[in-house]
Amino acid sequence: MTNDNWFIAAGSRPEAGWTDVVDGRVAGWAHTGLRTGTLRDGGELRLPADAVERLVVPLAGSFTVAYDDTTQVLEGRASVFEGPTDVLYVGSGTAATITGTGRVAVAEAPTETVKPSTYIARRDVPVELRGAGQSSRQVHNFGTPAALDAVKFIVCEVITPAGNWSSYPPHKHDTTVPGAESNLEEIYYYEAAVSRGVADIAPEAADPFALHRTYASDDRAIDEFRQVRTGDIALVPYGWHGPAVAAPGYDMYYLNVMAGPDPERVWNITDDPAHGWVRQAWASEQLDPRLPYEKESSR
Q1: Contact 251/162 with Cβ under 8 angstroms?
Q2: How far apart are CA 79 and CA 77, in angstroms?
Q3: Which residues have a Cβ under 8 Å from the Cβ of 71 and sit 6 or more positions away?
Q4: Contact between residue 151 and residue 265 where contact means Cβ atoms under 8 Å apart
Q5: From CA 160, how far away is CA 248, in angstroms rounded?
Q6: What is the pTM of this model?
Q7: Contact between residue 106 and residue 34 where contact means Cβ atoms under 8 Å apart
């Protein structure tokens, strides 16, 4: 069944200057959080000293983050379709203030454990080109266990060229099976834009969008099929999820935040057995030649 708790339309949960805030106050939600906000010259966004770890992710623009007695400049990027950005991990219990110009996201996960705050430069972000053919996409793994020493969350972002399918085959991570499957709720923050290959012919009336799908994997009812646009947030508490589809003419981006009750911070998944075989077909297909999306590429 469709549940309005699992879809946050852009701007529908504003708080203290933030465009949207998703946290444990959403019914049925417990392990992850997300803040998104827009700053103009002279403005600031504040992060309270709560018991949550955070990852500050520039979406568009550059920012300065002041915390403890430290100031960290984030170079950022012009848009999410320009490849990876530098990011800042801020340990639990740390207050911070963000200034600058542009759009910023902050991934969160509740934890009392304190890890040291860490800056990851753009050049150090692991970039993965995943899938093949129309399942080709680009993954920036700046908040995965291999790249970041965090406590609970796993954070990454994905660029999917127009017409391609992402988060595919559909999969789940809603049951603890040691060594095989993790129990992780997941946030998808979406953006969509006219594809860089056709931007010069798109009319002003163009309305970039993508599609998101979540459906039941057991007796817990869920049935979400949403058209998503820039700023929309889809929540996956459990169930099969995927595909996320980039409509022809429109590139798709999403930021993923995952965490759960398991003691081990690991992303183990189970494919929907009706569709998992598709991975084998990638061996005979080529990677989409439009990838990678990089900073020097123009829209």
Answers
A1: yes
A2: 6
A3: 64, 65
A4: yes
A5: 11
A6: 0.96
A7: yes
Tokens read off for 42: 């002279």
Residue 47 CA, chain-centre distance (Å), reads 19
pLDDT in tens, the chain (299 residues): 567 789 999 999 999 999 999 999 999 999 999 999 999 987 999 999 999 999 999 999 999 999 999 999 999 999 999 999 999 999 999 999 999 999 999 999 999 999 999 999 999 999 999 999 999 999 999 999 999 999 999 999 999 999 999 999 999 999 999 999 999 999 999 999 999 889 889 999 999 999 999 999 999 999 999 999 999 999 999 999 999 999 999 999 999 999 999 999 999 999 999 999 999 999 999 999 999 999 754 33
Identity of the residue numbered 172: K
Query: Tokens standing for 205?
Result: 């009336």
Longest Cα separation, the chain = 53
Strands 127-130 and 96-110: unpaired
Kindly state the DSSP code that residue 144 receives in the 8-state scheme.
S
DSSP character at residue 177: E
DSSP SS3 for 5: helix
Instruction: For residues 234 and 227, give the distance between their C-alpha atoms in angstroms, rounded to a whole number.
Output: 10
As a whole number of Å, the CA-based R_g of the chain is: 18
